[in-house]
Write a structure and sequence with these properties.
Blueprint lengths: L1 H8 L14 H17 L1 H4 L17 H13 L2 H6 L4 H20 L28 H13 L3 H13 L3 H6 L5 E4 L4 E7 L5 E6 L1 H14 L24 H15 L15 H12 L4 H8 L4 H7 L1 H7 L8 H16 L1
Antiparallel strand pairs: 1-2, 2-3
Helix pairs in contact: 1-2, 2-6, 7-8, 8-10, 8-12, 12-13, 13-14
Protein backbone atom coordinates (compact mmCIF):
# COMPACT_ATOMS: atom_id res chain seq x y z
CA UNK A 1 0.00 0.00 0.00
CA UNK A 2 2.92 2.35 0.61
CA UNK A 3 4.25 1.99 -2.92
CA UNK A 4 0.73 2.44 -4.24
CA UNK A 5 0.29 5.72 -2.32
CA UNK A 6 3.68 6.90 -3.58
CA UNK A 7 2.56 6.27 -7.14
CA UNK A 8 -0.77 8.07 -6.63
CA UNK A 9 0.56 11.14 -4.85
CA UNK A 10 4.05 11.55 -6.23
CA UNK A 11 5.11 14.92 -7.58
CA UNK A 12 6.35 15.17 -11.14
CA UNK A 13 6.88 18.91 -11.48
CA UNK A 14 8.65 21.24 -9.08
CA UNK A 15 5.79 23.69 -9.54
CA UNK A 16 2.64 21.89 -8.45
CA UNK A 17 0.36 24.04 -10.58
CA UNK A 18 1.97 22.56 -13.71
CA UNK A 19 0.97 19.02 -12.83
CA UNK A 20 -1.68 17.32 -14.94
CA UNK A 21 -2.52 13.94 -13.43
CA UNK A 22 -5.45 11.56 -13.83
CA UNK A 23 -8.15 11.55 -11.19
CA UNK A 24 -6.41 10.05 -8.15
CA UNK A 25 -9.56 8.51 -6.71
CA UNK A 26 -10.32 6.58 -9.90
CA UNK A 27 -6.77 5.20 -10.12
CA UNK A 28 -6.72 4.31 -6.43
CA UNK A 29 -10.05 2.47 -6.65
CA UNK A 30 -8.94 0.50 -9.71
CA UNK A 31 -5.53 -0.46 -8.33
CA UNK A 32 -6.81 -1.50 -4.91
CA UNK A 33 -9.30 -3.73 -6.71
CA UNK A 34 -6.42 -5.13 -8.78
CA UNK A 35 -4.43 -6.00 -5.64
CA UNK A 36 -7.42 -7.55 -3.86
CA UNK A 37 -8.26 -9.71 -6.86
CA UNK A 38 -4.69 -10.94 -7.23
CA UNK A 39 -4.77 -12.17 -3.63
CA UNK A 40 -8.38 -13.36 -3.41
CA UNK A 41 -8.42 -15.25 -6.71
CA UNK A 42 -4.78 -16.32 -6.73
CA UNK A 43 -5.66 -19.97 -7.50
CA UNK A 44 -7.80 -19.10 -10.53
CA UNK A 45 -5.11 -16.70 -11.77
CA UNK A 46 -2.35 -19.27 -11.00
CA UNK A 47 -0.54 -16.76 -8.84
CA UNK A 48 1.07 -18.44 -5.83
CA UNK A 49 0.61 -16.15 -2.83
CA UNK A 50 2.81 -18.48 -0.77
CA UNK A 51 5.78 -17.33 -2.86
CA UNK A 52 5.33 -13.59 -2.30
CA UNK A 53 8.68 -11.81 -2.02
CA UNK A 54 9.25 -9.17 0.68
CA UNK A 55 5.53 -9.02 1.38
CA UNK A 56 4.83 -7.48 -2.02
CA UNK A 57 2.76 -9.21 -4.73
CA UNK A 58 4.26 -6.83 -7.30
CA UNK A 59 7.77 -8.24 -6.75
CA UNK A 60 6.45 -11.77 -7.08
CA UNK A 61 4.59 -12.00 -10.37
CA UNK A 62 5.88 -12.10 -13.92
CA UNK A 63 4.58 -11.39 -17.41
CA UNK A 64 2.68 -14.68 -17.53
CA UNK A 65 0.84 -13.78 -14.32
CA UNK A 66 -0.26 -10.41 -15.60
CA UNK A 67 -1.56 -11.97 -18.81
CA UNK A 68 -3.45 -14.62 -16.87
CA UNK A 69 -4.95 -11.86 -14.77
CA UNK A 70 -6.13 -10.04 -17.90
CA UNK A 71 -7.73 -13.22 -19.24
CA UNK A 72 -9.41 -13.92 -15.89
CA UNK A 73 -10.65 -10.33 -15.65
CA UNK A 74 -12.10 -10.48 -19.15
CA UNK A 75 -13.69 -13.95 -19.02
CA UNK A 76 -13.90 -15.48 -15.53
CA UNK A 77 -14.24 -12.75 -12.94
CA UNK A 78 -17.44 -13.37 -10.90
CA UNK A 79 -18.80 -9.97 -11.96
CA UNK A 80 -18.42 -10.94 -15.62
CA UNK A 81 -20.06 -14.33 -15.09
CA UNK A 82 -23.14 -12.77 -13.46
CA UNK A 83 -23.42 -9.35 -15.10
CA UNK A 84 -21.93 -9.98 -18.51
CA UNK A 85 -18.68 -9.08 -20.23
CA UNK A 86 -16.99 -5.71 -19.84
CA UNK A 87 -17.10 -3.36 -22.79
CA UNK A 88 -13.90 -2.97 -24.79
CA UNK A 89 -13.62 0.62 -23.54
CA UNK A 90 -13.83 -0.50 -19.89
CA UNK A 91 -11.19 -3.20 -20.37
CA UNK A 92 -8.97 -0.67 -22.10
CA UNK A 93 -9.32 1.80 -19.21
CA UNK A 94 -8.49 -0.87 -16.61
CA UNK A 95 -5.48 -2.01 -18.65
CA UNK A 96 -4.21 1.57 -19.08
CA UNK A 97 -4.28 2.17 -15.30
CA UNK A 98 -2.53 -1.10 -14.46
CA UNK A 99 0.08 -0.53 -17.17
CA UNK A 100 0.79 2.96 -15.83
CA UNK A 101 1.34 1.55 -12.34
CA UNK A 102 3.56 -1.36 -13.46
CA UNK A 103 5.63 0.99 -15.63
CA UNK A 104 6.18 3.21 -12.60
CA UNK A 105 7.27 0.20 -10.47
CA UNK A 106 9.80 -0.87 -13.09
CA UNK A 107 11.24 2.58 -13.77
CA UNK A 108 11.72 3.28 -10.06
CA UNK A 109 13.52 -0.06 -9.62
CA UNK A 110 10.88 -1.47 -7.27
CA UNK A 111 10.50 -4.49 -9.59
CA UNK A 112 13.12 -5.97 -11.89
CA UNK A 113 10.92 -7.22 -14.75
CA UNK A 114 9.15 -4.90 -17.22
CA UNK A 115 5.83 -6.68 -16.66
CA UNK A 116 3.92 -3.83 -18.28
CA UNK A 117 5.32 -4.92 -21.64
CA UNK A 118 3.52 -8.24 -21.29
CA UNK A 119 0.01 -6.81 -21.13
CA UNK A 120 -2.30 -7.76 -23.98
CA UNK A 121 -3.10 -4.78 -26.16
CA UNK A 122 -6.71 -3.65 -26.37
CA UNK A 123 -7.67 -1.53 -29.36
CA UNK A 124 -10.71 0.65 -28.85
CA UNK A 125 -12.57 1.49 -32.03
CA UNK A 126 -14.98 4.41 -32.15
CA UNK A 127 -17.94 1.97 -32.04
CA UNK A 128 -16.55 0.44 -28.82
CA UNK A 129 -16.84 3.71 -26.92
CA UNK A 130 -20.07 4.30 -24.99
CA UNK A 131 -22.53 6.57 -26.81
CA UNK A 132 -22.21 9.89 -25.02
CA UNK A 133 -23.50 12.08 -27.84
CA UNK A 134 -26.34 14.34 -26.75
CA UNK A 135 -27.68 17.00 -29.06
CA UNK A 136 -29.42 20.29 -28.34
CA UNK A 137 -32.96 19.02 -28.93
CA UNK A 138 -32.41 16.15 -26.48
CA UNK A 139 -31.04 18.47 -23.79
CA UNK A 140 -34.07 20.72 -24.32
CA UNK A 141 -36.40 17.73 -23.94
CA UNK A 142 -34.78 16.92 -20.60
CA UNK A 143 -34.95 20.53 -19.41
CA UNK A 144 -38.59 20.86 -20.50
CA UNK A 145 -39.52 17.65 -18.70
CA UNK A 146 -37.90 18.62 -15.41
CA UNK A 147 -39.34 22.15 -15.60
CA UNK A 148 -42.85 20.80 -16.19
CA UNK A 149 -42.52 18.28 -13.36
CA UNK A 150 -41.12 20.98 -11.04
CA UNK A 151 -37.89 19.05 -10.50
CA UNK A 152 -35.75 22.14 -9.96
CA UNK A 153 -32.72 20.14 -8.77
CA UNK A 154 -32.33 18.03 -11.93
CA UNK A 155 -33.19 21.00 -14.16
CA UNK A 156 -30.51 23.20 -12.59
CA UNK A 157 -27.79 20.55 -12.64
CA UNK A 158 -28.38 19.66 -16.30
CA UNK A 159 -28.60 23.31 -17.34
CA UNK A 160 -25.36 24.31 -15.61
CA UNK A 161 -23.39 21.23 -16.72
CA UNK A 162 -24.41 21.79 -20.36
CA UNK A 163 -23.78 25.53 -20.22
CA UNK A 164 -20.30 25.24 -18.69
CA UNK A 165 -18.98 21.85 -19.88
CA UNK A 166 -17.60 21.16 -16.40
CA UNK A 167 -16.30 17.80 -15.20
CA UNK A 168 -18.40 15.98 -12.63
CA UNK A 169 -15.62 16.40 -10.06
CA UNK A 170 -15.26 20.12 -10.83
CA UNK A 171 -18.98 20.63 -10.29
CA UNK A 172 -18.97 18.85 -6.92
CA UNK A 173 -15.94 20.83 -5.68
CA UNK A 174 -17.59 24.21 -6.17
CA UNK A 175 -17.92 26.45 -3.11
CA UNK A 176 -20.00 29.61 -2.74
CA UNK A 177 -16.83 31.75 -2.93
CA UNK A 178 -16.06 30.23 -6.37
CA UNK A 179 -19.05 32.12 -7.78
CA UNK A 180 -17.53 35.54 -8.36
CA UNK A 181 -19.11 38.85 -9.36
CA UNK A 182 -17.37 41.42 -11.56
CA UNK A 183 -18.72 44.84 -10.62
CA UNK A 184 -17.27 46.44 -13.77
CA UNK A 185 -19.04 44.19 -16.29
CA UNK A 186 -21.91 43.32 -13.96
CA UNK A 187 -21.51 39.60 -14.72
CA UNK A 188 -20.73 36.45 -12.78
CA UNK A 189 -18.11 33.78 -13.40
CA UNK A 190 -17.01 30.52 -11.80
CA UNK A 191 -13.49 30.00 -10.47
CA UNK A 192 -13.17 26.27 -11.19
CA UNK A 193 -10.53 23.94 -9.74
CA UNK A 194 -9.76 21.30 -12.35
CA UNK A 195 -7.31 18.45 -12.87
CA UNK A 196 -3.75 19.05 -11.73
CA UNK A 197 -5.04 21.80 -9.41
CA UNK A 198 -5.42 24.06 -12.44
CA UNK A 199 -7.90 26.90 -12.07
CA UNK A 200 -9.98 28.34 -14.86
CA UNK A 201 -12.61 31.05 -15.18
CA UNK A 202 -15.98 30.16 -16.71
CA UNK A 203 -18.22 33.16 -17.57
CA UNK A 204 -21.91 32.76 -16.76
CA UNK A 205 -24.99 34.03 -18.54
CA UNK A 206 -27.94 35.35 -16.55
CA UNK A 207 -29.99 32.22 -17.30
CA UNK A 208 -27.21 30.21 -15.70
CA UNK A 209 -27.37 32.38 -12.60
CA UNK A 210 -31.11 31.77 -12.44
CA UNK A 211 -30.39 28.05 -12.27
CA UNK A 212 -27.99 28.58 -9.36
CA UNK A 213 -30.66 30.55 -7.50
CA UNK A 214 -33.35 28.00 -8.36
CA UNK A 215 -31.24 25.12 -7.04
CA UNK A 216 -30.44 26.76 -3.73
CA UNK A 217 -34.04 27.86 -3.26
CA UNK A 218 -35.26 24.29 -3.87
CA UNK A 219 -32.75 22.98 -1.33
CA UNK A 220 -33.78 25.61 1.21
CA UNK A 221 -30.21 26.78 1.84
CA UNK A 222 -28.95 30.35 2.24
CA UNK A 223 -29.03 32.71 -0.70
CA UNK A 224 -25.67 33.05 -2.41
CA UNK A 225 -25.09 36.60 -1.08
CA UNK A 226 -25.65 35.60 2.56
CA UNK A 227 -24.08 32.10 2.52
CA UNK A 228 -20.66 31.32 3.98
CA UNK A 229 -17.97 31.36 1.29
CA UNK A 230 -16.75 27.86 2.17
CA UNK A 231 -20.23 26.31 1.92
CA UNK A 232 -20.75 23.93 -1.02
CA UNK A 233 -22.47 25.68 -3.91
CA UNK A 234 -24.53 22.58 -4.70
CA UNK A 235 -25.74 20.40 -1.83
CA UNK A 236 -27.52 17.12 -1.32
CA UNK A 237 -30.78 17.05 0.65
CA UNK A 238 -28.66 16.72 3.81
CA UNK A 239 -26.86 20.00 3.14
CA UNK A 240 -23.54 18.36 2.26
CA UNK A 241 -21.55 18.61 -0.96
CA UNK A 242 -22.18 15.94 -3.55
CA UNK A 243 -19.51 13.35 -4.13
CA UNK A 244 -18.85 12.70 -7.84
CA UNK A 245 -20.31 9.18 -7.59
CA UNK A 246 -23.41 10.40 -5.74
CA UNK A 247 -24.09 13.11 -8.30
CA UNK A 248 -23.62 10.64 -11.15
CA UNK A 249 -25.94 8.05 -9.62
CA UNK A 250 -28.61 10.62 -8.76
CA UNK A 251 -28.64 12.26 -12.19
CA UNK A 252 -28.56 8.96 -14.08
CA UNK A 253 -31.48 7.67 -11.99
CA UNK A 254 -33.81 10.67 -12.40
CA UNK A 255 -33.12 10.88 -16.15
CA UNK A 256 -33.86 7.19 -16.61
CA UNK A 257 -37.08 7.54 -14.59
CA UNK A 258 -38.24 10.37 -16.87
CA UNK A 259 -39.02 7.76 -19.54
CA UNK A 260 -38.50 10.22 -22.38
CA UNK A 261 -38.89 8.50 -25.79
CA UNK A 262 -35.38 9.28 -27.09
CA UNK A 263 -33.84 7.35 -24.17
CA UNK A 264 -35.08 4.07 -25.68
CA UNK A 265 -32.67 4.43 -28.57
CA UNK A 266 -29.58 4.96 -26.41
CA UNK A 267 -27.19 2.11 -25.66
CA UNK A 268 -25.73 3.80 -22.55
CA UNK A 269 -27.17 5.85 -19.71
CA UNK A 270 -26.84 9.62 -19.42
CA UNK A 271 -24.51 10.77 -16.65
CA UNK A 272 -22.83 14.12 -15.85
CA UNK A 273 -20.01 13.47 -18.32
CA UNK A 274 -22.55 13.17 -21.14
CA UNK A 275 -23.26 16.88 -20.80
CA UNK A 276 -19.58 17.69 -21.50
CA UNK A 277 -20.13 15.98 -24.84
CA UNK A 278 -23.36 17.94 -25.27
CA UNK A 279 -21.42 21.16 -24.61
CA UNK A 280 -18.92 20.31 -27.36
CA UNK A 281 -21.59 19.23 -29.85
CA UNK A 282 -23.91 22.19 -29.29
CA UNK A 283 -21.14 24.80 -29.48
CA UNK A 284 -19.63 23.17 -32.58
CA UNK A 285 -23.00 23.14 -34.36
CA UNK A 286 -23.32 26.83 -33.49
CA UNK A 287 -20.08 27.60 -35.30
CA UNK A 288 -17.59 27.74 -32.43
CA UNK A 289 -14.03 26.78 -33.46
CA UNK A 290 -12.89 23.33 -32.28
CA UNK A 291 -9.73 24.79 -30.76
CA UNK A 292 -11.81 27.20 -28.68
CA UNK A 293 -14.01 24.30 -27.52
CA UNK A 294 -10.85 22.37 -26.57
CA UNK A 295 -9.59 25.23 -24.40
CA UNK A 296 -13.01 25.71 -22.79
CA UNK A 297 -13.19 22.02 -21.85
CA UNK A 298 -9.65 22.09 -20.46
CA UNK A 299 -8.35 19.44 -22.86
CA UNK A 300 -4.58 19.29 -23.33
CA UNK A 301 -4.81 17.84 -26.84
CA UNK A 302 -7.11 18.60 -29.76
CA UNK A 303 -7.47 14.87 -30.44
CA UNK A 304 -9.41 14.47 -27.17
CA UNK A 305 -11.95 17.09 -28.23
CA UNK A 306 -12.21 15.50 -31.66
CA UNK A 307 -13.26 12.22 -30.01
CA UNK A 308 -16.23 14.10 -28.51
CA UNK A 309 -17.17 15.30 -31.99
CA UNK A 310 -16.17 12.18 -33.92
CA UNK A 311 -19.66 11.10 -35.00
CA UNK A 312 -20.72 14.66 -35.79
CA UNK A 313 -17.65 15.06 -38.02
CA UNK A 314 -18.48 11.76 -39.74
CA UNK A 315 -21.95 13.01 -40.66
CA UNK A 316 -20.68 16.42 -41.77
CA UNK A 317 -17.98 14.95 -44.02
CA UNK A 318 -20.22 12.42 -45.76
CA UNK A 319 -20.09 12.56 -49.57
CA UNK A 320 -23.86 13.04 -49.76
CA UNK A 321 -23.38 16.70 -48.83
CA UNK A 322 -21.61 17.19 -52.19
CA UNK A 323 -24.62 15.82 -54.09
CA UNK A 324 -25.70 18.02 -57.01
CA UNK A 325 -29.41 17.46 -57.54
CA UNK A 326 -29.46 19.23 -60.92
CA UNK A 327 -27.00 16.67 -62.32
CA UNK A 328 -28.18 13.37 -60.87
CA UNK A 329 -30.94 13.87 -58.31
CA UNK A 330 -33.69 14.93 -60.75
CA UNK A 331 -33.10 11.83 -62.85
CA UNK A 332 -33.68 9.54 -59.88
CA UNK A 333 -36.80 11.46 -58.84
CA UNK A 334 -38.24 11.31 -62.39
CA UNK A 335 -37.44 7.62 -62.73
CA UNK A 336 -39.17 6.80 -59.43
CA UNK A 337 -42.27 8.69 -60.61
CA UNK A 338 -42.43 6.67 -63.83
CA UNK A 339 -42.20 3.40 -61.93
CA UNK A 340 -44.99 4.54 -59.65
CA UNK A 341 -47.31 5.26 -62.60
Amino acid sequence: MEILQWFLHRGVHLQQQHEVRPTVQAYERELIQFIEQLLTYSIEIHFGVENIIDGSPFKSFSTRHIRRYQEWLSEKRPYVLTKGAYSVATLSRKTTIIKSFLTFLFKTGYINEPNHEGLFKINVRKDDRPKRDLERKEVIQLLDYFRETHHSIAFSIIHILTMTGMHNVEFTRLRVKDLQYDSISGTYSLDVLGKGNKRSQIPLKEKGMNSFRMFRSARGVDYIKTADGDDPLFTTNTGRAYSPSHLSQHLTKVIKESGLPFLKFRTSSIDPHTFRHAFAIIYHLHGVDVYQIMKSLGHEQLSTTEIYLEKIFEKERHAIHLWKSDVFGEYIIEESRQKTH
